[in-house]
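Need tokens for this chain, all 354 residues.
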Amino acid sequence: MTRHDTLKCIHEPLGDAFYYGPERLSRRYDDDEEARIQTGFDQSTYKTIFDRFDREASEGKRLFIKDMAYYIMPPDGEPATRVASLQIPKRGIGTDMNGNGSSSNGVASNGAGVLPTDTPHRTNGGSSSAESDNPTVVPLELLSKFHFAFLIRDPHYSIPSYYRCTIPPLDDITGFYEFYENESGYDELRRLFDYLRKVQYVGPYHASTVHTAPANVTNGTNGTNGAMTNPDGPDKVEICVVDADDLLDNPSAVIERFCKSVGEEYTPDMLQWPTEKDQQVANDAFAKWHGFHDDALGSKCLRPRAHKKAAKTEAEFDAEWKEKYGEKGAKIIRSAVDRNMADYRYLKKFATKI
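Here are the structure tokens for all 354 residues:
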């Protein structure tokens, strides 16, 4: 967000469709239509959001979108089918079996293949089952427009942090009055990560290796935004997974390596946001998620933490959660942590090393 001269940052836009719109995948607001309407996002569809990406990208700045994998995937591991607003019309005159033409929102297929929804897509990677394996409600041709990088955090810390936002006194601010374990997001992140590797939109190179992302990775058409047209070339999007603990221990080195991976210039002043303009950009970006980002909004810089996180036993975690959230809260947190640790450990294996 400090790079507001060259980057346009959008914070969790896909949550509008996931929670509030007519295509919502979440059941959180099924019984509270008034709350959905009051958000102003009750008419948001996945198409309106992707149209926004196209519109804002056309204004000249590179888009940086921070979002949740579970916002584009049905909860609880349910099979994914393409949402209605992103359905591609049945083939007519002027299109061919290779998918040459435009999708329903006007985005060129970029070689991903625009076929009827019951027909497997043939991707740049050559896999005829790539679309049928797609775990998201978004067609592969739209996923191909993005350069993906991943942020993970130990569930022992992320789960209690989220749980705190769903109980008094914060629940009246966030509007989330119940903790949903299926909103932890690790399972969805792992499945999206594995799928993008399978269709060769990320990897096989890793951000910890000598290989680096090309200098010309900028927002734009396929081939320059990270979804390279040549799947066998040297300029694929490398695997870039950042662990929050590494970031907090050594922010300058981790952000510098992240920038190198995604094709942005690193400068130390990226880690500071003391000006009124910086603060306003952040306030505007976080405005719709009341209560979730108060700590970030109260900060002005990112410095290494004074001491690395002390190791704790599981019994120590349980005791800490019981003290803060009571016996019931501690059991809820423990269940979610245990459910997500395997996926976290799996993704942790890919975390960038400095």
